Fold this protein.
Amino acid sequence: MSEHLTVVDHPLVQHKLTLMRDKGASSAEFRQLLHEITLLLAYEITREMPMTTRAIETPMEEMDAPILAGKKLALVSILRAGNGMLDGVLELVPSARVGFVGLYRDEETLKPVQYYFKVPEGLNNRLVIVVDPMLATGNSSAAAIDLLKQAGATDIRFLCLLAAPEGVERMKQAHPDVPIVTASIDRELNSKGYILPGLGDAGDRMFGTK
């Protein structure tokens, strides 16, 4: 994952994303689609996990077979919308440790304010995947990654559903060492910091709070 940005243009990802964007999608449909897309995106973001081999016996013979090396990954959700992506990654990597970063956006300044931080120990020995459906201004994401680096994380990747060009640029400036995997780069942000054409507020649509 040397590229700073990977857009997953797989037909199933793009099809499901269109269904999610539709304002007529119910919360249940939105959550299910997010789960399915996250599985597909997680497949991409874990592509270069380190491997080793282990001696096993198949029903036919002994062999040295490939297996993941080292400690398993740590999955960190940016609350609250990031929680909608946890299950998709955990379905692929059920042994992952899970952490949470709570940030809310000050509506006046659009700057992130921290209210919660709890992450697994030993982040310096783990691949850390940060999940949040929307990379909008990039301020919250950059702040969350600042906190994770302070906690010892050195190998971090960022997984999102949608990204705005402004958010990608902000992340590139703040954390050029953190690759981003997303399903779409949308056109722009509006004056309130929402992605256009986007899909609205992912948390509200996921949890039915609007």
Remarks:
- Residues 27-45 form the longest helix (19 residues).
- The two ends are 37 Å apart (CA to CA).
- The chain is about 30% helix and 30% strand.
- The chain has one domain: 5-207.
